[in-house]
Specification:
With 216 residues, this protein is α/β, with parallel strands linked by helices. It is built from ten helices and eight strands. 43% of the residues lie in helices and 16% in strands. The protein has an eight-stranded parallel beta barrel, surrounded by five helices.
Amino acid sequence: MIPKLHYISQGDSPEGHLENIHKACSAGVELVQLRIKNIDEVNLLKTAEKAREITGNHQARLIVNDHYKIAKTVKADGVHLGKADSPPTEARKHLYSWQIIGGTANTVQDCRTLIEKKVDYIGLGPFRFTTTKDNLSPVLGVKGYASLLEELKTETPIIAIGGITIEDVIAILETGVYGIATSGELTKDFSKINRFHNRLQTGTKQEQVWKVNQKT
């Protein structure tokens, strides 16, 4: 099962990304996407290795944005591919069988293309305007998600992304979306992770372990 809450890393430097990843994992996030732009592959590899160590220590999953070869090298849990990145079918040839692939979409056709290429989840957005991504696609909003989900009728998990706040979660879930990816909202206050878990009805790892223990 793919976690319903994804944290997209932020930071002014690789060290800043790692610090925020550590804070997110410590606060209970279960999946982190390492997303650093304008960095050479050598430094990205070093950062991904450290991110893998952090997420591993917290039993969280790590997804590497764009670079499937680095995802394989550090044995991340998967890769997330944007529209301009390598196609999922190409990445699949190189990754381990257990690694997952996510793809970015903005339209019904984008989603159908990714589904045909057998991605494990789709990052669909943006929900609203956000400054964390250049060349932003048209904003979808709640009505856009509802329309797309109604037309798609897919079992592939759809993860909403793009300027999402804690107040948006319930309305977005009502459209049929599987989960939420957020960046700035959590970076500003990692204590909101529990509130996200509550609204997504997921519970933290600690709560899940407690529930299992109560049954034994």
